[in-house]
Amino acid sequence: MSAARGSLLGIEHLEAAEILKILKFARRMNPDKPRPLLKGKRVVLLFYEASTRTRSSFELAAKVLGAHTVLIQAAGSSIEKGESLLDTGYTLRAVGADVIVIRHPSAGAPHVMARHIDIPVINAGDGLHEHPSQALLDAYTILRSKKSFKGLQVAIIGDIFHSRVARSACHLLSKVGVKVILCGPPELVPEIASTLAPGVRVTRHVEDALRGTDVVMLLRVQKERLAGQKINLPDYIARYQMTAARLKTAKRDAIVMHPGPIIRGLELTSEVADGVQARILEEVRNGVPTRMAILARAVGKMR
Amino acid sequence: MKTRSTNSLLIKGGHLIDPAARIDAPMDILLEEGRVAEVALPHKIKGADEKFDARGLIVTPGFIDLHVHLREPGQAHKETIATGTAAAAAGGFTSVCTMPNTAPVADSVEWVQWLRQPERGAVVNVFPIAAATHASKGATLTDFRSLQRAGAIAVTDDGKPILEDDIMRAALVLGGELNFPVVQHAEDTRMTEHCSMHAGARSFRMGLRGMTAAAEADIVERDVQLAMQIPNSRLHVAHLSTADALKGVRRGKRARARVTCEVTPHHFTLTDDDVRDYDSRYKMNPPLRSASDLEAILVALADGTVDAIATDHAPHAAHEKEMEFERAAFGITGLETALALAVTRLHREKRIPLARVVELFTAGPARCFDLRGRGSLGRGCFADVTIFDPKRKWTFEAAKSLSKSRNTPFDGWQLTGKVVATIVGGKVAYGA
Questions:
Q1: Which CATH class is domain B62-368?
Q2: What is the pLDDT of residue B264?
Q3: Taking CA atoms, what residue in A is nearest to B319?
Q4: Under an 8 A CB cutoff, do A116 and B322 touch?
C-alpha cells in the first residue's frame, strides 16, 4: 500500500510546484485567525522523541484549524510496554484519528507506518533522515526576507551528517533552484553529502561557504547522536563558530537561521544569535502557519 | 528393509553437467542403493525399475548450500528443519549446512546430534556447523574435536565475528590440526554499531548509518594473514560482499593458503541503490553493497576466486521485519530463488558458462567443507541429484514458498531456470 493522499513523508519526492503551492498557501494562514478547515478532525501527535518547537506548533496549527488534538508520547503510553510502531498506528486509526503527525528516532518510521494505514501521515522528523515541515518553514522564512529563491545561495554550516533538517533543506532548496554549500569537518560533513541533490557542494572552509551567501543556516552539533565519533569542540568552535566578524564575509543583507535548539558559544555567538540578521525566533513563529498549510493539505483543504 | 525395486532409479535423456568429473554431455545415470551405480552414454544402461525422463533438462550433482539458518532449536516460529529443508529441496539443494546461531547456540555435541536426528523431519542432508566459541561469545573455543566427531562439518560464530586476534588464531590452529574449516562472518562490529545498510550515497540520503566496506575487508585481511601463517589451517569467508575483501581472499589463494569463500545470490543481484522506501526485505548482513562491489563479485564468480554460491537463507517472521528499518531483523530467505538468480544473472546476462554456475553449487561447496562423495556424480558417490530446466521462465511467489517465512526481495520476480526434481539419496525429495 502506498501512503495516503495528503501525507508528507519527506521533501525528496515532492515536486517543486507542490512545494511552492504549500508555501503560497502558508502565507494565507494566520495563526491569530481561526479557520475551521479541520473542524471535527482528530489529529494525533505521536512523539517518540523529545520536541518543543515542532510539537507545540503542530498542536497550535491543528487547533487554529479547528481540529481535536491528542498527544501521545512514548513515555507513559503503551509504546513503553512494547507496542510496535504498526500496532500503535492501527490502534490510533481505530480510535478515529484522521491525521497522524509522527516524530521518531528511527529513519523511515513514518514511511513504514504510512504503508500500512490509510490516513495521512506527516513526518515531524525521522531519525537522521528528513524533517520536511522544518524545511518548509525555513523556505517560508527565507521568502519573508528575500523576494524569491532566484539566484540565492545558502550556506548550511555544522553537523550535516546527523541532521534531518539539513537533508530536507538540501532537497527543498535544490528543487527551487537555490545553490547550497555545506560546510563543516569531514566527520560531520562527508564528501558524499554533495550527492544529496543537484547544486549542492561541500567545503571545509567557513569563509568559502559565506562568500556571496544570502542565507546562513547554522546547525547544532548533535552530541547525543555522535555514536562513538569524537568531535574536538574547541577546534570546531575555532574553525566553524559563527561570529559577528565571520558573518561579515556573507552578503550584507544575509540572514542567519537555525532550526534550534541553539547552543550559544558553540555553533554561534550570542552576538549573532541576538543580532539584527538573525531570524531564529521568526522561524519558530513561521512554524505555525506552515504547519497549518501542511495539515490543511493533509485533509484535502489546501485550495 | 526396502526391496531392490524401489532402490534403483535411472535418470535418462538428460544433459549431465558434473564439473568435478569434467563431464558436460548427454548422459544417463543409474542410482542404486543410495549411490551412483553407473554413468553412461545415452541408452547404454538397461533394466532399472524406475525411470526419470530428463529430456531437455540439465542433470547435476545435488546442490550444496554452505550457509543456511534453519532456526532450530529455539526459533521454530521462523523456520523448522522440516520446512527449511523442504524449501531447500524445492530450490535444488540436497545438502544444507546449518548455522549455529540458534537458541541456544549449537555449541555442544548434544545439539549437533539433535540437529541430525530423524525426528527433525529433514528431507535433505543436514550438515551442522557448530559454534566456534561457547555461546558464540568469542571468548573460549568449543570442543572442536568432539563436535567434529559428532558430525559438525565446520565451526563458526556466524552473525558474530571472532574479533579477538588470539581467539581467531587459536581457532585456526586447532582447526588446522583437525582439518576442520573455521567459517568467519567477516565484520568488524566495532565499526558497524547501529548500522543497518552499506555506507554510501544511498545510506546518507536515507539517514541510515552505514557499514563500510572496510569493516568487512579488515577482518578478511587479518584472517587471511593468520591463515597464511598457520600450517594446515582452513579459513572459509562467509557471504563475502566487497571488492576489498576479495583482494584479501586472492592474496591468500595465491599464497596457497587454504582460504575459500562464498557469495550469496542477493550480493550478485542487488546493490545498495535497491534499498528503497525503508523496505526491510532489502536489509541483510552483510548489506547490499555498491555497484562496483557487485561488479568485482561477478568477476570473482567467473574467474574462480569465489568457491561457492551460498544463500544465507535467513527466515524471519513478518512481525520481525515489518517495522522501523533500523530495528528490523537482518536477513532474507533464499533457498528457492538461488538457482534461478544464478541462471538469470550469471549465465544468461553475464554469460558465465552454465558448467561454472553448476560448479559453484556443487563441486565448489563440496571442496570448501570436504563433503566426500558429494558435489559429484562419479560412480559410488551419494545419489544426490538436481535436475533443472535452464530455459524455463517462471515467477517466484513468496506466498507459495515452502519456507515458513516470506522475507524476500524477490517476490514477483520473473526468472529463468527452474528446478524440476531434487533427488536425495536416490529418492525424489522434490518434484515440480
A1: alpha beta
A2: 98
A3: A84
A4: yes
What span, in angstroms and rounded, lies between the C-alpha atoms of B280 and B411? 13
pLDDT < 50 regions, chain A: none
Contact B390, B357 (CB under 8 A): no
Q: Is A196–B325 a contact, with Cβ atoms under 8 angstroms apart?
A: no
Would the pLDDT of B374 be above 60? yes
- A149 and A241 assigned to the same domain: yes
Q: Residue ranges of the domains in chain B?
A: 4-59+383-431, 62-368
pLDDT number for residue A283: 96
Whether residues A218 and A184 fall in one domain: yes
Ranking A289-293, B1-5, B173-177, B392-396 by mean pLDDT, the lowest is B1-5
Distance from CA of B205 to the nearest CA of A (A): 6
Would you call A129 and B319 a contact, using CB atoms and an 8 Å cutoff?
A: no
A33 and A153 within one domain: no
Whether residue A188 sits in one domain with residue A92: no
Same domain for A150 and A271:
yes
Pairing of strands B125-131, B154-156: parallel
Cα dist. B43→B5, B11, B24, B426 in Å?
20, 11, 17, 20
> pLDDT tens digit string along B383-395?
999 999 999 999 9
Contact assignment for B206 to A129 by CB distance below 8 Å = yes
Q: What is the pLDDT of residues B136-170, one digit of tens each?
A: 999 999 999 999 999 999 999 998 999 999 999 99
Which amino acid, A10?
G
CB–CB of B206 and A193 under 8 A? Answer: no
Looking at the structure, do residues A166 and A219 belong to the same domain, yes or no?
Answer: yes
Candidates A103, A111, A116, A188, partner chain B, best to mutate (most B CBs within 10 A): A111
ipTM above 0.85, yes or no: yes
What superfamily does domain B4-59+383-431 belong to in CATH? Urease, subunit C, domain 1 (2.30.40.10)
Instruction: Supply the mean pLDDT for chain B.
Output: 96
pLDDT at B6 over 60: no
List chain B residues with CB under 8 Å of A111. 277-278
B279 is catalytic: no
A85 assigned to some structural domain: yes
- Domain match, A157 and A247 both: yes
Q: State the Cα–Cα distance between residues B88 and B85, nearest whole angstrom.
A: 5
Residues 265-284 of B with CB under 8 A from A: 277-278
Residue A72 lies in a domain: yes
Total number of domains in chain A: 2
User: Within this chain, do residues A147 and A214 fall inside the same structural domain, yes or no?
Assistant: yes
Which chain A residue lies closest to B195 (C-alpha atoms)?
A: A227
Sheet architecture: strand order including A68-73:
A68-73, A42-47, A99-104, A121-126
β B385-395/B58-61 pair status: antiparallel
Task: Provide the shortest C-alpha distance from residue A167 to chain B (in Å).
Answer: 7
Catalytic residue among B107, B158, B307, B312: B312
Cβ distance A108 to B323 less than 8 Å, yes or no, reads no
Cell reading at A43: 489529529
CB contacts of B211 in chain A (<8 Å) are none
Distances (CA, A) of A71 to A42, A60, A62, A101: 11, 12, 12, 10
**Residue at A8 is within a domain:** no
Contacts of A115 in chain B (CB under 8 A): 277
Identity at A52, one-letter amino acid code: T
CATH number of the domain residue A187 falls in: 3.40.50.1370
For chain B, what's the residue count?
Answer: 432
**Is residue B298 scored above 60 in pLDDT?**
yes
